[in-house]
Design goal:
By secondary structure, the chain is mainly alpha-helical. It has six helices and no strands.
Length: 118
Amino acid sequence: MSASVQLVNDLVARVPGFEDLYESHVFNEDTVLPHVFFWDVTQETVQSYLGADADLPDWRSTLEFLEEQSARGIGEIDEVVVTSFLEYLPFPGKPGHDIVKELGPVMAAKFARVRPAG
């Protein structure tokens, strides 16, 4: 199993609120596509941060998990987290952009490298 697929499986195990998203994703794609899945994770995480839906997985748990995974320094995991999570966070002036202030030090540094203007 690839590190990026394991990342998805570990996220769903750690934050069970993503189980429905995972099941619909696998049903629609016939497999796990980590980059596609994490685009949806980003959207749900930002919506949770905004308080838009109490049924969404808690954004803090998601950021904590991703910070831990990012700190491992595994290239395939970093690629998914950076390109399919951090790069899709809201831009300055958009609702939810303040979530970037909540990133842990490892993800904050990676975010600053890929989006220096925020």
